[in-house]
Design goal:
Helix content: under 10%
Strand content: over 45%
Largest sheet: 7 strands, mixed
Number of strands: 11
Distance between the termini: 40 Å
Number of helices: 0
Oligomer: single chain
Length: 116
């Protein structure tokens, strides 16, 4: 059974940092695209960042460029999202996802709350 399990969310003050992890199990994800999404209350889910099998990275929104960094450890089947200089507008449920071309596996999400 394929599973993606996020961890590392929590409550942080504005300007702080968090590191999210997404551990994948049930198959090898080395060749898969892995991505982070987020959904704030009352808003649509948006892509934060994605990383392909060779380490190519795309950030989905300009607001996170220079503050967030996505990385992956294929040996551990894990993708990370380092989030620095967090702002209240970063408050959302963060999800990781994976797939060969499109995202077919999703985690359950982890809450990130940034207080002002």
């Amino acid at each position: 059974q394929v599973q993606l399990v996020e961890s590392g969310g929590g409550l942080v003050q504005a300007g702080g940092s968090l590191r999210l992890s997404c551990a994948a199990s049930g198959r090898t994800f080395t060749a898969y695209i892995m991505g982070w999404f987020r959904q704030a209350p009352g808003k649509e889910r948006e892509v934060v960042a994605r990383i392909n099998w060779s380490g190519g990275i795309t950030y989905g929104t300009d607001s996170v460029k220079g503050r967030f960094a996505i990385s992956r450890d294929n040996a551990k089947n894990t993708v990370y999202l380092q989030m620095n200089e967090l702002q209240p507008e970063d408050t959302a449920v963060y999800y990781c996802a994976a797939g060969p071309n499109s995202y077919i596996y999703w985690g359950q999400g982890t809450q990130v709350t940034v207080s002002s």
